[in-house]
Recover the amino acids of this structure.
């Protein structure tokens, strides 16, 4: 007899019933093993192995050749959801096609990144879309919809959003805590995630390495309290790599890994990414937690159910019904055209005094360190096609009209005995670039040891030296290969580009005696000349001393090229693997000094100098003497062609800045200051003058705005806004129409202006289009800390329409009904310490290891908290504070002196051992309440009675 088909194999049943059936057939050991990133096969049930995680931020990454689209921040600069949806669709189609040939390619994609670009020095700025939560969620929603596909049941890929939550620093990223007040949490950080999850194309999220309010994100109570309430879908929460171990090893939040793993699972982490492909340690920790009673089988079942839900949606159990099973769209003409379209739409014209677009017969000098580069980042695939700015300009204007100067310094390195470092010739054919073979973790790819190490001789080899900023150098041999150090310690000319998790292609020159030490940054060790070749020394005692002999300065070559051209295009920016990347924040907004030298030389030789910035983040540049400035993120495989077409006017630029470009480092908040309201951060609150504002971008056309109407639709709970945009220029072009709002009479600090909606539209010369937005009234609400909920404040709201956050063309005011401000009912319910209106010198910390917030003073400072309009009713006579630790809390009314000061005596045993302290306190009616905190005391709650 044929065995009956088990229900989990029946495609006619709902996924939930099939998941329940399969779950019931798995043993506890089998289920426990599923909780590691690399879930093993269960052969007795015919269940295949499965892994979470496939990087796909702007193309399939780490698995060899694939179509490479612009970086995420570049996609954000398009302000074009439909374009980004098509990019997501192309990426997911290539993931399916690649998986058909290589089962290591996963369909649970860890993309997109929806962390807000709050601070431009964040090393991973390239991975986000915008500093604005609404723009971020709009672009992220579009990308996830493309990744997911449009079938009602089956998904092409299953996107996981990164990185939950409030994560904008690489400095101490696994031990630092983001202090996020409730208004910032709800109005800023959660908002980008929420709208994207609610759109229904998200399979899960990945918690970030950092802590929020003193608690690791992998234990975040917001996973249950917020995330899982936004959708009925089962969401799979995948840990970041190594983060489960960090709970003990670096964060010291728990004493044992069993405690830590159990706490993460109970908080909502469903898949543990730790120790690479070796699942044994995570499985052992889970089993230990079960044996110790820290977990139950129901806890394990809950997590496994979420994973299985994703696997069913991906069609794993229904190959004959999976509509995406036969997808084989890889490197198609359509994908190549889309890569170029995306790169073109990402170009932002920041300034233009008329030098652009370039006339067809223009003689162009293209100069700069990135002029002949097509740079990749950590989350790129391997290039199938490559286009640099130089190649794009050759193609567009003809090689005879284009001259080139890279601007590197040409140097030789002389040793103490008078010889020079020499690169031996090699008959070696070009090796496959790192990543072409695919690697689940490219950090594990090793450098080459098959080429001869450097030696010395009487003449030496002239090397191309670039200073990427702060003395970080690369050295390149005449054959184009970079000096690199492999695992055996020898220095070779072996790398096609700088790269890798630990970059092995960078050095520093350190003054020493009568010369310099050449220190390899990847190992931290100095270079020496040994009998068997040039290598890194064991320590400084064995270091070689070198003299830098300069054969040619980069600015001299730039000057020669610039002088003979009609227009100079200086291509400057960053290498995404150096000085600002994952695990390393930037230290300044300024261009590296080497590139500033080249820019000055070009400008001095030719006033018609255009600066084209190709970078993963904003720069503070002096644009006053430059006739034109453009910016684009690293644009993927078609970057050079796209930039050339924009310069030539084949495409009118219409990218818009997705984040504020500040004029100076002094405009920036502290990297770890996450209070965008109190710190007056981003375009929402910044009160200074930016270099270029959020939403800014120019065109080769001009546009007029008119006929603004706004109508409050009380029945629909929305505001209807319409206006007309007309192309008053002479070329067809895109315009990005932007709608902002400003509360005119707020009772609390509100944004100077806040993006409500936008639309990118294409208009022929003389053409007009009517743009209409339906804005829900809820979009104008704010988080009322006095009452712990959203509140729409009654009164006037200015609606601002224009081409950027500062270029407002039309405005009108609507008056909305709402809920008036009401005093805090502190006499009835007291105060949660974190619900302050203003603060200085404090940070929010964890009240317990599982939930709740407390407030403490920053080390070495007196903490001050202000709670406005506290209603004590007919009167109170006593105050009770819940505190832990050592120190004191003072309580005052309005601007007066402290009415009472309370201090635990003796201090409590630990930061979570709270005690209630009570004192006489007399107040009635409505007053502002001021609290001061001293020492390490944590304040959780203030209550009133009597």
């Amino acid at each position: 007899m044929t065995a009956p088909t088990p229900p989990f194999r029946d495609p006619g049943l709902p996924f939930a019933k099939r998941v329940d059936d399969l779950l019931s057939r798995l043993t506890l050991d089998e289920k426990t093993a599923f909780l590691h990133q690399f879930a093993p096969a269960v052969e007795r049930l015919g269940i295949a192995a499965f892994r979470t995680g496939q990087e796909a931020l702007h193309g399939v990454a780490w698995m060899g050749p694939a179509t490479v689209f612009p970086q995420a921040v570049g996609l954000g600069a398009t302000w074009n959801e439909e374009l980004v949806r098509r990019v997501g669709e192309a990426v997911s189609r290539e993931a399916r096609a690649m998986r058909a040939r290589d089962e290591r390619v996963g369909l649970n994609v860890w993309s997109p990144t929806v962390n807000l670009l709050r601070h431009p020095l964040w090393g991973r700025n390239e991975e986000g879309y915008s500093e604005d939560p609404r723009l971020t969620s709009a672009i992220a929603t579009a990308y996830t919809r493309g990744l997911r596909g449009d079938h009602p049941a089956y998904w092409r890929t299953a996107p996981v959003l990164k990185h939950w939550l409030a994560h904008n620093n690489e400095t101490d990223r696994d031990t630092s805590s983001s202090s996020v007040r409730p208004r910032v949490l709800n109005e800023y950080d959660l908002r980008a995630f929420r709208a994207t999850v609610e759109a229904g194309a998200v399979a899960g999220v990945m918690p970030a390495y950092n802590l929020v309010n003193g608690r690791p994100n992998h234990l975040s109570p917001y996973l249950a309290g917020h995330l899982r309430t936004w959708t009925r879908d089962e969401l799979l929460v995948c840990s970041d790599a190594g983060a489960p171990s960090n709970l003990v090893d670096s964060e010291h939040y728990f004493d044992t890994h069993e405690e830590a793993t159990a706490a993460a699972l109970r908080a909502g982490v469903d898949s543990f990414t730790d120790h690479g492909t070796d699942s044994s340690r995570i499985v052992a920790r889970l089993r230990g937690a079960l044996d110790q009673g820290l977990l139950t089988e129901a806890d394990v079942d809950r997590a496994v159910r979420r994973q299985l839900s994703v696997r069913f949606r991906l069609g794993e159990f229904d190959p004959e019904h999976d509509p995406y099973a036969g997808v084989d769209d890889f490197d198609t003409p359509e994908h190549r055209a889309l890569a170029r379209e995306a790169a073109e739409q990402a170009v932002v014209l920041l300034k233009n005094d008329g030098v652009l677009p370039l006339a067809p017969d223009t003689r162009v000098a293209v100069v700069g360190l990135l002029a002949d580069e097509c740079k990749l980042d950590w989350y790129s695939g391997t290039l199938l096609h490559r286009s640099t700015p130089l190649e794009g300009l050759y193609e567009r204007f003809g090689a005879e009209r284009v001259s080139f100067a890279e601007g590197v310094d040409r140097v030789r390195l002389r040793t103490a005995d008078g010889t020079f470092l020499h690169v031996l010739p090699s008959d070696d054919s070009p090796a496959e670039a790192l990543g072409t073979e695919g690697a689940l973790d490219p950090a594990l790819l090793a450098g080459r040891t098959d080429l001869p190490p450097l030696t010395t001789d009487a003449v030496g080899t002239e090397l191309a030296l670039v200073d990427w900023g702060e003395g970080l150098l690369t050295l390149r041999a005449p054959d184009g290969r970079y000096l690199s150090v492999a695992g055996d310690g020898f220095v070779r000319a072996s790398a096609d580009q700088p790269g890798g998790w630990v970059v092995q292609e960078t050095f520093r020159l350190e003054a020493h005696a009568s010369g310099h030490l050449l220190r390899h940054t990847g190992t931290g060790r100095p270079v020496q000349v040994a009998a068997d070749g040039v290598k890194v020394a064991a320590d400084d005692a064995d270091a070689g001393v070198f003299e830098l002999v300069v054969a040619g300065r980069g600015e001299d070559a730039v000057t020669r090229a610039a002088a003979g051209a009609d227009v100079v295009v200086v291509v400057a920016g960053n290498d995404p693997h150096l000085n600002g990347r994952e695990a390393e924040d930037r230290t300044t907004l300024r261009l590296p000094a080497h590139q500033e030298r080249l820019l000055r030389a070009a400008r001095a030789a030719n006033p018609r100098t255009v600066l084209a910035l190709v970078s993963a983040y904003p720069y503070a540049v002096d644009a006053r003497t430059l006739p034109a400035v453009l910016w684009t993120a690293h644009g993927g495989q078609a970057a050079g062609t796209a930039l050339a077409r924009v310069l030539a006017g084949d495409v009118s630029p219409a990218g818009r800045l997705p984040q504020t470009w500040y004029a100076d480092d002094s405009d920036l908040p502290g990297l770890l200051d996450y209070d965008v309201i109190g710190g007056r951060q981003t375009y929402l609150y910044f009160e200074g003058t930016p270099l270029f504002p959020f939403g800014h971008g120019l065109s080769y056309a001009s546009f007029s705005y008119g006929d603004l109407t706004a109508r409050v639709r009380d029945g629909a709970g929305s505001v209807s806004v319409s206006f007309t945009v007309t192309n008053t220029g002479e070329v067809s072009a895109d315009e990005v129409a932007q709608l902002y709002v400003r509360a005119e009479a707020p009772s609390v600090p509100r944004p100077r202006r806040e993006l409500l909606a936008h639309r990118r539209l294409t208009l022929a010369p003389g053409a007009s289009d009517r743009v209409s937005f339906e804005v829900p009234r809820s979009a104008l609400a704010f988080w009322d800390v006095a009452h712990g909920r959203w509140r729409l404040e009654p009164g006037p709201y200015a609606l601002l329409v224009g081409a950027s956050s500062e270029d407002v063309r039309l405005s009108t005011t609507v008056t909305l009904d709402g809920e008036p401000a009401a005093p805090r009912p502190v006499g009835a319910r007291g105060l949660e310490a974190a619900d302050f209106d203003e603060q200085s010198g404090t940070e929010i910390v964890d009240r317990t290891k599982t939930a709740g917030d407390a407030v403490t003073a920053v080390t070495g400072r007196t903490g001050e908290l202000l709670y406005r309009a506290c209603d004590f009713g007919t009167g109170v006579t006593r105050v009770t504070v819940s505190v832990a630790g050592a120190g004191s809390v003072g309580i005052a009314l309005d601007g007066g002196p402290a009415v009472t000061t309370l201090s635990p005596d003796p201090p409590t045993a630990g930061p979570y051992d709270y005690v209630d302290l009570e004192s006489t306190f007399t107040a009635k009616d409505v007053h502002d309440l001021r609290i001061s905190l001293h020492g390490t005391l944590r304040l959780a709650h203030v209550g009133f009675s009597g």
